[in-house]
Amino acid sequence: MEEALIRLRMSEHDAHYAGGLVNGSRMLDLFGDVATELLIRSDGDEGLFVAYDKVEFKAPVYAGDFIEARGSIVKTGNTSRRMEFVATKVIALETNGKHDSAAAVLQVPVVVCTASGTCMVPKEKQRGEQIE
Predict the structure, then answer these.
(1) 34, 104 in Cβ contact below 8 A?
(2) Residue 11 C-beta-side C-alpha neighbours within 13 Å
(3) Comparing C-alpha atoms, which of 49, 39, 47 is closest to residue 129?
(4) Cα separation, 52 vs 116, whole angstroms
């Protein structure tokens, strides 16, 4: 099972709420990018995201946090690709420290969001893993 990974620092631009809180939908943006990479790797085409069937927001994300979004294809149909995703916080700002720029690598990453959904690649656009 192939996995795709994106690591990204949340910026002030990503913050949507007071205190630098990032909108949960930003994790879905990351999952969409992970899904696109998975489809390109498996089918040679970006495909289309059909639907999420489950999304769970588990912990807050703030500007300055580093997030890893991972996904994998767990089931393959004729045109459909079922995927599962997880986003974890791997670095967090230290809000109670002496320095406003202090951050810490988390020894145990914090799961901030999980999701599953289905993407599809039309049969005529599938090119397989070997692209010339």
Answers:
(1) no
(2) 2
(3) 39
(4) 6
